[in-house]
Structure formats: C-alpha cells, structure tokens
Write a structure and sequence with these properties.
By secondary structure, the chain is an all-beta fold. 0% of the residues lie in helices and 49% in strands. The chain has strands at 4-7, 10-13, 18-24, 34-39, 46-51, 58-60, 68-73, 78-83, 92-100, 103-104, 114-119. The strands form 2 sheets. Strands 2, 4, 5, 6, 9, 10 and 11 form a 7-stranded mixed β-sheet that branches.
Length: 120
C-alpha cells in the first residue's frame, strides 16, 4: 500500500496561487495513476484532477479546468497540484490518492490532507 502525505496548503486571497504536494512512500509509485480530491465543509469529497503513471495524460473536473495543473515527479515519488486563479469556492481540505478513473482506488484510506482557504 502507498502511504501519502499532503502539504502546501494555506490561506490565500482570491486570485492567488498555491502549489500542493503529495509525497508517497514505496518504490512502486510510478505504477499508479494518481489524483487529487477535495472536501469542503458540509460537502462530500469530490474529484479535482488526475494524472496517469507516466505523466502524459491528465484529467480535470470542470470546476478547476484551466486554473489547476496536476503533475508528477516519479523520481521524487511526488504528485503536485498547481492552483492559480483561486476562488473562495476552492476552499477545502485537499487530498491525494491512487485513482481508478476519477475515483479513489483506496476510498477507505486517506492521508491527513492539506487545508486550502481562499478569502474573498
């Protein structure tokens, strides 16, 4: 099983940018498609973006398309989420996970997440 640790969240004004990181343990990281999810207060966790094993293919939720960019560095066992043009509705705890399509492959396992707060 891959262990995941998210970081990089914080408080930012609307229109600002943040880069989230997700560090994974294990030597098989490059075998997994990875994704980012988020959960806002009082809402269900939702898909944000995914990237395939080699990093050549990405997919985004409509709500973040054109503003967020997912990438990965398999040598560092890390997946990133570059967020720009942030909006108050992007406020949430962000999590990474192994994905199958746009769903978490391990829905019962989540890291601690990283809080993103966007002020208006």
């Amino acid at each position: 099983q891959v262990l995941l640790v998210e970081s990089g969240g914080g408080l930012v004004q609307a229109g600002g940018s943040l880069r989230l990181s997700c560090a994974a343990s294990g030597r098989t990281f490059s075998m997994y498609n990875m994704g980012w999810f988020r959960q806002a207060p009082g809402k269900e966790r939702e898909f944000v973006a995914s990237i395939n094993r080699g990093g050549s293919s990405t997919y985004y939720a409509d709500s973040v398309k054109g503003r967020f960019t997912i990438s990965r560095d398999n040598a560092k066992n890390t997946v990133y989420l570059q967020m720009s043009g942030l909006k108050p509705e992007d406020t949430a705890v962000y999590y990474c996970n192994v994905v199958a399509g746009n769903r978490p492959a391990y829905p019962d396992y989540w890291g601690q997440g990283t809080q993103v707060t966007v002020s208006s």
